[in-house]
Amino acid sequence: MHSIPTSLPANVVGEAPSPMTDALGDLLGSSDFQSLDATFGLFCPFEALGMVRAEIRHGNFLAYIINPRRPHGLGSRVLHAFLDLVDAASVGAGRLEPDTVDVRREWRNIDLVVVIPSLRTVCAVELKIDASQGHDQLARYRKVVEAEWPGWRHHFVFLTKNDETAKDGWSELRLAPLIAALDRVADAAPEAPASPTLKQYCAMTRRHHVDDPATIELARRLWAEHGQALSFLMRQRREQPLQFLIDAISDRADELAETASLPGLRIVTDEHQDDIVRFAVEHWDALPGFRDGIGWTASGRVMLIEIKLRRDHISAYIYTGPTTTPALRDTLASSLTAAGVTRKKVSASNRHVALAEMTLFEIENPLDIDEDAAIDGVAAGFRAFVADTVTRFNDAFRSGLVNIHMLAGSK
Fold first, then answer.
1. How many CB atoms lie within 10 A of CB 219?
2. Nearest-CA neighbor of 325 among 404, 246, 249, 225?
3. Which residue has better confidence, 270 or 13?
4. Is residue 277 within a helix (H) or strand (E), and if so which, with residue range?
Protein backbone atom coordinates (compact mmCIF):
# COMPACT_ATOMS: atom_id res chain seq x y z
CA MET A 1 0.00 0.00 0.00
CA HIS A 2 1.28 3.47 -0.81
CA SER A 3 2.01 5.92 1.97
CA ILE A 4 0.39 9.31 2.33
CA PRO A 5 2.36 12.39 3.34
CA THR A 6 1.09 14.01 6.50
CA SER A 7 1.99 17.52 5.36
CA LEU A 8 2.06 19.41 2.07
CA PRO A 9 5.05 21.33 0.65
CA ALA A 10 4.64 25.08 0.50
CA ASN A 11 4.86 25.17 -3.30
CA VAL A 12 1.71 23.06 -3.73
CA VAL A 13 -0.40 26.21 -3.63
CA GLY A 14 2.25 28.93 -3.42
CA GLU A 15 5.55 29.90 -1.87
CA ALA A 16 4.13 30.17 1.63
CA PRO A 17 1.70 27.86 3.39
CA SER A 18 -1.89 29.02 3.35
CA PRO A 19 -4.85 28.09 5.53
CA MET A 20 -6.01 25.67 2.81
CA THR A 21 -2.55 24.06 2.75
CA ASP A 22 -2.83 23.48 6.49
CA ALA A 23 -6.37 22.14 6.09
CA LEU A 24 -5.25 19.68 3.40
CA GLY A 25 -2.30 18.62 5.55
CA ASP A 26 -4.63 17.97 8.47
CA LEU A 27 -6.87 15.93 6.20
CA LEU A 28 -4.01 13.79 4.84
CA GLY A 29 -2.64 13.25 8.34
CA SER A 30 -5.98 12.23 9.79
CA SER A 31 -6.17 8.67 11.05
CA ASP A 32 -9.66 8.41 9.56
CA PHE A 33 -8.31 9.42 6.16
CA GLN A 34 -5.46 6.92 6.48
CA SER A 35 -7.97 4.18 7.27
CA LEU A 36 -10.21 5.15 4.36
CA ASP A 37 -7.26 5.27 1.98
CA ALA A 38 -6.20 1.82 3.15
CA THR A 39 -9.60 0.57 2.00
CA PHE A 40 -9.31 2.08 -1.48
CA GLY A 41 -5.54 2.02 -1.92
CA LEU A 42 -5.10 -1.73 -2.25
CA PHE A 43 -4.20 -3.40 -5.51
CA CYS A 44 -7.28 -4.90 -7.09
CA PRO A 45 -7.06 -6.97 -10.30
CA PHE A 46 -10.70 -6.26 -11.08
CA GLU A 47 -10.12 -2.50 -11.00
CA ALA A 48 -6.94 -2.94 -13.07
CA LEU A 49 -9.00 -4.74 -15.73
CA GLY A 50 -11.60 -1.97 -15.83
CA MET A 51 -14.32 -4.17 -14.40
CA VAL A 52 -15.88 -1.76 -11.89
CA ARG A 53 -18.74 -0.66 -14.14
CA ALA A 54 -18.29 -3.15 -16.95
CA GLU A 55 -21.47 -5.17 -16.61
CA ILE A 56 -20.36 -7.81 -19.08
CA ARG A 57 -17.25 -8.57 -17.00
CA HIS A 58 -19.29 -8.81 -13.80
CA GLY A 59 -21.51 -11.30 -15.57
CA ASN A 60 -18.53 -13.32 -16.79
CA PHE A 61 -17.08 -13.59 -13.30
CA LEU A 62 -20.36 -14.49 -11.64
CA ALA A 63 -21.09 -17.14 -14.25
CA TYR A 64 -17.66 -18.68 -13.67
CA ILE A 65 -17.80 -18.66 -9.89
CA ILE A 66 -21.40 -20.00 -9.75
CA ASN A 67 -20.62 -22.88 -12.09
CA PRO A 68 -19.68 -25.94 -9.97
CA ARG A 69 -17.91 -27.49 -12.96
CA ARG A 70 -15.25 -24.77 -13.08
CA PRO A 71 -11.85 -25.40 -11.41
CA HIS A 72 -12.21 -22.71 -8.75
CA GLY A 73 -12.14 -25.20 -5.89
CA LEU A 74 -15.42 -24.02 -4.38
CA GLY A 75 -17.49 -26.83 -5.81
CA SER A 76 -21.19 -26.09 -5.62
CA ARG A 77 -20.90 -23.78 -2.57
CA VAL A 78 -21.49 -20.60 -4.57
CA LEU A 79 -24.33 -22.17 -6.51
CA HIS A 80 -26.04 -23.26 -3.26
CA ALA A 81 -25.55 -19.79 -1.78
CA PHE A 82 -27.07 -18.24 -4.88
CA LEU A 83 -30.02 -20.64 -4.87
CA ASP A 84 -30.65 -19.92 -1.20
CA LEU A 85 -30.97 -16.24 -2.06
CA VAL A 86 -33.44 -16.84 -4.89
CA ASP A 87 -35.39 -19.39 -2.81
CA ALA A 88 -34.71 -22.22 -5.23
CA ALA A 89 -32.47 -24.54 -3.22
CA SER A 90 -35.20 -26.99 -2.27
CA VAL A 91 -37.17 -26.78 -5.50
CA GLY A 92 -37.94 -30.03 -7.26
CA ALA A 93 -38.10 -33.64 -6.18
CA GLY A 94 -34.54 -34.60 -7.09
CA ARG A 95 -31.10 -33.91 -5.70
CA LEU A 96 -28.85 -31.23 -7.11
CA GLU A 97 -26.20 -32.95 -9.24
CA PRO A 98 -23.37 -30.45 -9.79
CA ASP A 99 -21.90 -32.30 -12.78
CA THR A 100 -25.08 -31.73 -14.78
CA VAL A 101 -25.49 -28.03 -14.02
CA ASP A 102 -25.17 -25.76 -17.06
CA VAL A 103 -24.43 -22.05 -16.55
CA ARG A 104 -24.91 -20.03 -19.74
CA ARG A 105 -23.76 -16.49 -20.53
CA GLU A 106 -25.71 -14.19 -22.84
CA TRP A 107 -27.93 -17.03 -23.98
CA ARG A 108 -30.59 -15.40 -26.16
CA ASN A 109 -29.34 -12.07 -24.73
CA ILE A 110 -30.11 -13.12 -21.13
CA ASP A 111 -27.17 -12.29 -18.85
CA LEU A 112 -27.09 -15.58 -16.91
CA VAL A 113 -29.08 -18.78 -17.23
CA VAL A 114 -28.51 -21.53 -14.65
CA VAL A 115 -29.92 -24.86 -15.86
CA ILE A 116 -30.32 -27.60 -13.20
CA PRO A 117 -31.62 -30.74 -14.92
CA SER A 118 -31.70 -32.88 -11.75
CA LEU A 119 -34.19 -30.44 -10.22
CA ARG A 120 -35.91 -29.58 -13.51
CA THR A 121 -35.23 -25.98 -12.56
CA VAL A 122 -33.87 -23.04 -14.54
CA CYS A 123 -32.87 -19.64 -13.13
CA ALA A 124 -32.68 -16.69 -15.50
CA VAL A 125 -30.72 -13.72 -14.17
CA GLU A 126 -30.76 -10.21 -15.60
CA LEU A 127 -27.85 -8.24 -14.14
CA LYS A 128 -27.81 -4.45 -13.92
CA ILE A 129 -24.80 -2.57 -12.54
CA ASP A 130 -25.47 1.00 -13.63
CA ALA A 131 -28.31 0.53 -16.11
CA SER A 132 -32.01 -0.15 -15.55
CA GLN A 133 -34.37 -2.69 -17.07
CA GLY A 134 -35.79 -2.08 -20.51
CA HIS A 135 -39.49 -1.42 -20.98
CA ASP A 136 -40.32 -4.98 -22.18
CA GLN A 137 -36.98 -6.70 -21.73
CA LEU A 138 -37.92 -8.97 -18.84
CA ALA A 139 -41.19 -10.02 -20.45
CA ARG A 140 -39.37 -11.09 -23.61
CA TYR A 141 -36.81 -13.08 -21.64
CA ARG A 142 -39.54 -14.81 -19.64
CA LYS A 143 -41.23 -16.02 -22.83
CA VAL A 144 -37.94 -17.35 -24.22
CA VAL A 145 -37.16 -19.35 -21.06
CA GLU A 146 -40.67 -20.73 -20.66
CA ALA A 147 -40.69 -21.86 -24.29
CA GLU A 148 -37.27 -23.54 -24.00
CA TRP A 149 -38.00 -25.40 -20.74
CA PRO A 150 -41.75 -26.12 -20.63
CA GLY A 151 -42.94 -27.91 -17.51
CA TRP A 152 -39.83 -26.95 -15.51
CA ARG A 153 -39.73 -24.64 -12.51
CA HIS A 154 -38.65 -21.20 -13.62
CA HIS A 155 -36.98 -18.58 -11.44
CA PHE A 156 -36.56 -15.11 -12.92
CA VAL A 157 -34.08 -13.00 -10.97
CA PHE A 158 -33.48 -9.29 -11.47
CA LEU A 159 -30.07 -8.63 -9.89
CA THR A 160 -29.28 -4.99 -9.23
CA LYS A 161 -27.72 -2.75 -6.60
CA ASN A 162 -30.71 -0.39 -6.67
CA ASP A 163 -34.15 -0.43 -5.07
CA GLU A 164 -35.81 -0.97 -8.42
CA THR A 165 -39.01 -2.98 -8.76
CA ALA A 166 -38.68 -5.64 -11.43
CA LYS A 167 -41.34 -5.86 -14.10
CA ASP A 168 -43.31 -8.88 -15.28
CA GLY A 169 -43.17 -10.71 -11.96
CA TRP A 170 -39.40 -11.13 -11.80
CA SER A 171 -37.91 -11.43 -8.31
CA GLU A 172 -35.56 -8.70 -7.15
CA LEU A 173 -32.19 -9.70 -5.73
CA ARG A 174 -30.05 -6.88 -4.42
CA LEU A 175 -26.32 -6.97 -4.98
CA ALA A 176 -25.58 -6.41 -1.27
CA PRO A 177 -26.91 -9.77 0.02
CA LEU A 178 -25.27 -11.62 -2.87
CA ILE A 179 -21.89 -10.08 -2.05
CA ALA A 180 -22.36 -10.93 1.62
CA ALA A 181 -23.13 -14.53 0.67
CA LEU A 182 -20.08 -14.75 -1.61
CA ASP A 183 -17.91 -13.38 1.20
CA ARG A 184 -19.17 -16.09 3.54
CA VAL A 185 -18.41 -18.78 0.96
CA ALA A 186 -14.83 -17.52 0.59
CA ASP A 187 -14.38 -17.38 4.38
CA ALA A 188 -15.69 -20.93 4.77
CA ALA A 189 -13.29 -22.34 2.16
CA PRO A 190 -10.01 -20.40 2.52
CA GLU A 191 -8.05 -23.27 0.99
CA ALA A 192 -9.90 -23.02 -2.35
CA PRO A 193 -7.75 -21.52 -5.16
CA ALA A 194 -10.42 -18.94 -6.01
CA SER A 195 -11.21 -17.78 -2.44
CA PRO A 196 -8.68 -14.88 -2.33
CA THR A 197 -9.89 -13.68 -5.72
CA LEU A 198 -13.50 -13.96 -4.63
CA LYS A 199 -12.71 -11.88 -1.54
CA GLN A 200 -11.14 -9.22 -3.76
CA TYR A 201 -14.23 -9.19 -5.97
CA CYS A 202 -16.46 -8.71 -2.94
CA ALA A 203 -14.25 -5.91 -1.62
CA MET A 204 -14.22 -4.16 -5.00
CA THR A 205 -18.00 -4.39 -5.30
CA ARG A 206 -18.45 -2.95 -1.81
CA ARG A 207 -16.14 -0.05 -2.59
CA HIS A 208 -18.01 0.94 -5.72
CA HIS A 209 -21.54 -0.42 -5.61
CA VAL A 210 -22.65 -1.62 -2.17
CA ASP A 211 -22.77 0.57 0.91
CA ASP A 212 -20.35 -0.53 3.64
CA PRO A 213 -21.34 0.81 7.10
CA ALA A 214 -17.76 1.10 8.35
CA THR A 215 -16.63 3.06 5.31
CA ILE A 216 -19.69 5.29 5.46
CA GLU A 217 -18.94 6.13 9.09
CA LEU A 218 -15.34 7.06 8.20
CA ALA A 219 -16.57 9.31 5.42
CA ARG A 220 -19.11 10.93 7.75
CA ARG A 221 -16.42 11.79 10.28
CA LEU A 222 -14.09 13.11 7.59
CA TRP A 223 -16.75 15.43 6.22
CA ALA A 224 -17.60 16.62 9.71
CA GLU A 225 -13.97 17.40 10.56
CA HIS A 226 -12.46 18.29 7.16
CA GLY A 227 -15.40 19.44 5.05
CA GLN A 228 -13.64 22.57 3.76
CA ALA A 229 -10.61 20.66 2.50
CA LEU A 230 -12.74 17.96 0.91
CA SER A 231 -14.87 20.58 -0.86
CA PHE A 232 -11.69 22.20 -2.18
CA LEU A 233 -10.47 18.87 -3.56
CA MET A 234 -13.78 18.24 -5.28
CA ARG A 235 -13.62 21.63 -6.99
CA GLN A 236 -10.16 20.81 -8.30
CA ARG A 237 -11.20 17.51 -9.80
CA ARG A 238 -10.49 17.51 -13.53
CA GLU A 239 -11.23 13.97 -14.57
CA GLN A 240 -13.97 13.27 -17.04
CA PRO A 241 -16.83 12.49 -14.65
CA LEU A 242 -19.00 10.99 -17.41
CA GLN A 243 -16.49 8.32 -18.38
CA PHE A 244 -18.38 5.68 -16.40
CA LEU A 245 -21.48 6.50 -18.44
CA ILE A 246 -19.87 6.02 -21.85
CA ASP A 247 -18.32 2.77 -20.58
CA ALA A 248 -21.76 1.53 -19.51
CA ILE A 249 -23.19 2.49 -22.90
CA SER A 250 -20.41 0.62 -24.68
CA ASP A 251 -20.99 -2.49 -22.54
CA ARG A 252 -24.70 -2.47 -23.32
CA ALA A 253 -24.51 -1.31 -26.93
CA ASP A 254 -26.27 -4.41 -28.29
CA GLU A 255 -29.16 -3.95 -25.89
CA LEU A 256 -29.33 -0.23 -26.66
CA ALA A 257 -29.46 -1.00 -30.39
CA GLU A 258 -32.21 -3.57 -29.87
CA THR A 259 -34.42 -1.34 -27.75
CA ALA A 260 -34.00 1.62 -30.13
CA SER A 261 -34.84 -0.42 -33.24
CA LEU A 262 -38.22 0.14 -34.89
CA PRO A 263 -40.20 -1.82 -37.50
CA GLY A 264 -38.30 -1.38 -40.76
CA LEU A 265 -35.45 0.37 -38.97
CA ARG A 266 -33.10 -2.12 -37.38
CA ILE A 267 -30.22 -0.57 -35.45
CA VAL A 268 -27.03 -2.66 -35.11
CA THR A 269 -23.71 -2.03 -33.44
CA ASP A 270 -20.57 -1.09 -35.33
CA GLU A 271 -16.93 -0.78 -34.27
CA HIS A 272 -16.39 1.36 -31.16
CA GLN A 273 -13.39 3.59 -30.54
CA ASP A 274 -12.15 5.26 -27.35
CA ASP A 275 -15.04 7.41 -26.13
CA ILE A 276 -17.24 6.76 -29.19
CA VAL A 277 -19.95 4.10 -29.38
CA ARG A 278 -21.04 3.42 -32.97
CA PHE A 279 -24.23 2.06 -34.51
CA ALA A 280 -25.60 1.61 -38.02
CA VAL A 281 -28.90 1.07 -39.79
CA GLU A 282 -28.69 -2.47 -41.09
CA HIS A 283 -30.55 -2.17 -44.39
CA TRP A 284 -28.68 0.98 -45.40
CA ASP A 285 -25.78 -1.38 -46.13
CA ALA A 286 -27.50 -2.41 -49.39
CA LEU A 287 -27.71 1.17 -50.70
CA PRO A 288 -25.20 2.13 -53.42
CA GLY A 289 -21.97 3.52 -52.01
CA PHE A 290 -22.85 2.87 -48.35
CA ARG A 291 -20.08 0.28 -47.91
CA ASP A 292 -17.40 2.29 -49.73
CA GLY A 293 -16.11 4.02 -46.58
CA ILE A 294 -12.40 4.24 -45.84
CA GLY A 295 -10.28 5.17 -42.82
CA TRP A 296 -13.15 4.79 -40.38
CA THR A 297 -14.35 1.35 -39.32
CA ALA A 298 -13.72 -2.16 -40.60
CA SER A 299 -17.35 -2.35 -41.74
CA GLY A 300 -16.66 0.17 -44.52
CA ARG A 301 -19.91 1.97 -43.78
CA VAL A 302 -20.04 5.54 -45.04
CA MET A 303 -22.81 6.64 -42.66
CA LEU A 304 -22.91 5.78 -38.95
CA ILE A 305 -24.71 6.78 -35.78
CA GLU A 306 -22.34 7.74 -32.97
CA ILE A 307 -22.73 8.40 -29.27
CA LYS A 308 -19.83 10.57 -28.14
CA LEU A 309 -18.50 11.67 -24.78
CA ARG A 310 -17.84 15.39 -24.49
CA ARG A 311 -16.41 17.22 -21.49
CA ASP A 312 -19.74 17.83 -19.79
CA HIS A 313 -22.31 16.08 -21.97
CA ILE A 314 -23.01 13.08 -24.17
CA SER A 315 -24.50 13.50 -27.63
CA ALA A 316 -25.73 11.37 -30.52
CA TYR A 317 -24.79 12.10 -34.13
CA ILE A 318 -25.30 10.88 -37.65
CA TYR A 319 -21.94 11.05 -39.41
CA THR A 320 -20.86 10.54 -42.96
CA GLY A 321 -17.20 9.68 -43.43
CA PRO A 322 -14.47 9.44 -46.06
CA THR A 323 -15.30 7.18 -48.98
CA THR A 324 -13.83 5.84 -52.21
CA THR A 325 -16.81 7.44 -53.99
CA PRO A 326 -16.83 11.02 -52.66
CA ALA A 327 -18.95 12.30 -55.54
CA LEU A 328 -21.76 9.94 -54.61
CA ARG A 329 -21.44 10.87 -50.94
CA ASP A 330 -21.51 14.61 -51.70
CA THR A 331 -24.52 14.25 -53.98
CA LEU A 332 -26.29 12.17 -51.33
CA ALA A 333 -25.65 14.77 -48.63
CA SER A 334 -26.81 17.57 -50.92
CA SER A 335 -30.01 15.66 -51.66
CA LEU A 336 -30.63 15.19 -47.94
CA THR A 337 -30.21 18.92 -47.44
CA ALA A 338 -32.53 19.70 -50.33
CA ALA A 339 -35.14 17.35 -48.87
CA GLY A 340 -35.00 19.24 -45.58
CA VAL A 341 -33.69 16.24 -43.67
CA THR A 342 -30.48 17.99 -42.64
CA ARG A 343 -29.09 21.49 -42.84
CA LYS A 344 -25.47 20.41 -42.85
CA LYS A 345 -23.44 20.62 -46.04
CA VAL A 346 -20.69 18.24 -47.05
CA SER A 347 -17.56 19.86 -48.45
CA ALA A 348 -15.44 18.36 -51.19
CA SER A 349 -12.72 17.51 -48.63
CA ASN A 350 -14.04 13.93 -48.16
CA ARG A 351 -13.78 14.24 -44.37
CA HIS A 352 -16.10 13.26 -41.53
CA VAL A 353 -19.18 15.47 -41.34
CA ALA A 354 -21.92 15.42 -38.71
CA LEU A 355 -25.25 15.59 -40.54
CA ALA A 356 -27.37 15.57 -37.36
CA GLU A 357 -26.83 15.95 -33.63
CA MET A 358 -28.83 15.61 -30.42
CA THR A 359 -27.68 16.04 -26.82
CA LEU A 360 -28.58 12.95 -24.81
CA PHE A 361 -27.34 13.95 -21.38
CA GLU A 362 -25.82 17.04 -19.78
CA ILE A 363 -25.44 18.32 -16.25
CA GLU A 364 -24.42 21.64 -14.79
CA ASN A 365 -22.38 20.13 -11.97
CA PRO A 366 -20.41 17.13 -13.32
CA LEU A 367 -19.63 16.03 -9.76
CA ASP A 368 -23.29 15.66 -8.85
CA ILE A 369 -24.57 12.85 -11.05
CA ASP A 370 -27.26 10.32 -10.31
CA GLU A 371 -25.72 7.40 -12.20
CA ASP A 372 -28.91 5.43 -12.72
CA ALA A 373 -30.86 8.48 -13.87
CA ALA A 374 -28.00 9.38 -16.22
CA ILE A 375 -27.98 5.96 -17.87
CA ASP A 376 -31.76 5.94 -18.17
CA GLY A 377 -31.61 9.42 -19.67
CA VAL A 378 -29.04 8.44 -22.29
CA ALA A 379 -31.00 5.34 -23.28
CA ALA A 380 -34.25 7.29 -23.54
CA GLY A 381 -32.54 10.07 -25.47
CA PHE A 382 -31.01 7.60 -27.92
CA ARG A 383 -34.40 6.00 -28.56
CA ALA A 384 -35.83 9.47 -29.23
CA PHE A 385 -32.94 10.28 -31.57
CA VAL A 386 -33.61 7.14 -33.59
CA ALA A 387 -37.39 7.63 -33.57
CA ASP A 388 -37.07 11.22 -34.80
CA THR A 389 -33.81 12.02 -36.58
CA VAL A 390 -32.72 8.61 -37.84
CA THR A 391 -36.28 7.87 -38.94
CA ARG A 392 -36.36 11.06 -41.02
CA PHE A 393 -33.18 9.97 -42.81
CA ASN A 394 -34.62 6.52 -43.33
CA ASP A 395 -37.93 7.85 -44.62
CA ALA A 396 -36.08 10.04 -47.10
CA PHE A 397 -34.22 7.02 -48.46
CA ARG A 398 -37.37 4.87 -48.68
CA SER A 399 -39.81 7.47 -50.01
CA GLY A 400 -37.71 8.62 -52.95
CA LEU A 401 -37.09 12.13 -51.60
CA VAL A 402 -33.48 11.03 -51.88
CA ASN A 403 -33.33 8.58 -54.77
CA ILE A 404 -30.26 6.54 -53.90
CA HIS A 405 -30.32 4.41 -57.02
CA MET A 406 -30.43 7.43 -59.29
CA LEU A 407 -27.52 8.90 -57.38
CA ALA A 408 -25.50 5.77 -58.06
CA GLY A 409 -24.70 7.25 -61.46
CA SER A 410 -22.48 9.74 -59.70
CA LYS A 411 -19.96 7.01 -58.85
1. 15
2. 404
3. 270
4. strand 276-281
